[in-house]
Write a structure and sequence with these properties.
binds uridine-diphosphate-N-acetylglucosamine; 24 strands; four-stranded mixed β-sheet; 423 residues; alpha/beta
Length: 423
Amino acid sequence: MKNRLPDSGAKYMIVGGRRLYGELQVMSAKNSILPLIACSVMTEGEVFLTRCEMTSDAVNMADIVRSLGGKCSFRDGGIYIDCRDLSSCRVGSELTGRLRSSVFILGPLLARAGSAEICYPGGCDIGPRPIDLHISGLRALGAQISENGDKVSARGALHGARIELPMPSVGATENIMMAASRAEGVTVVCGAAAEPEITDLQNFINACGGKVRGAGTRRLEIEGVKRLHGATFAPSGDRIAAGTYMTACAICGGEVTVTGANPAHLASVTGILRRAGAEVTELTNGATVRSDGSPRAPGRIETAPYPGFPTDLQSPLTALAALSRGTTYIIENLFENRFRHIPQLRKMGADITVCGRAATVRGRRLNGSDVEAEDLRGGAALVLAALGADGTSTVCGLSHIDRGYYDLGGKLSSLGADIRRLP
Ligand code: UD1
């Protein structure tokens, strides 16, 4: 596995107009890997998560585990984690500020050590990202939690409980599932998130000796166990990365096969790409996209919890809409501020009006321009727009993109895109 990509001041130089051809394999989903690394803190044995790329979010999560005394190493195409001996139950702001998912450490650490102290998490600025549901869920499990300045301190022995989530928060569902899996007694979570990453977490906990069922439905049942052991686990392929590459092909034209992802996880994006005129063939482990490179407006796109259209693909699809023939309406229901890529797309000539959570995108040709990524998926959207634009673009702010895509430029270049990473 290669070392981390250098990020400071790096940018992509992209010449638009190349068609994409070839095959690309996606690795384990970043959004599965992060809670799984955190969950490993509860295990007393060696964990190996396969096909784990060194995205900067994964590297930062590993740093958090190391700061607690655990061992983590990226080897053999995956990540080894050994948390038999932990020496601390505190994570400072320098580490938690690096990623939103640092909050995942709270539940597992509390369940393992009986106390945990973390600082508030950082991450993409895509609107307010409260952690109240994580905290109230852990409180229902018996944790005493105090919030002081930027610190959250939790302690206490955990017991089973019945928890009703007012909204299906992915992260809160995961934090509660992890903590409850080592609590005393049975926990029932109603209104749980049903994303494939929740199923991955359930399957991982069970592979380590836990007793969780119901993932993929709104009701989870978790029977606490005294200990969790290590395991080798293969998380599902990254559906968001797969959707990004499929969208790139629909924009640029050509024929791209994406493997390593479950096509059922891609159903909502597949439907939209077909409406945009792309031909999508589902395979047992991915999909092939064929496109003539002149997409038509896919109509209305509305983000929703799984199995609805994922908010993480809203920005890449906005890039497609901006380059399509006709008008697309995009409604972002999950996050308030997930339109930060739009002012950047306008620099390329995009005709987009935003009103609250709705964006009206009137498709047209785009021109190469100098743009800046301000969040992870928005950054990917700018890269895709640049691939479909006339002329040359530069995209800076690559540290955002590196958080969730390992070597995005290299992968697109292997498909024939004219994209270079400049240090
Ligand atoms: C996860 C994903 C992220 C994705 C999102 C929605 C990871 C690492 N990240 O983020 O890529 O975009 O799911 O699919 O898996 N909320 C509260 N209180 C809380 C928690 C959440 O009000 O305590 C709200 C959020 O503000 C948001 C909504 O619930 O409006 C959904 O957020 P959530 O599902 O928790 O997203 P994350 O787990 O942060």
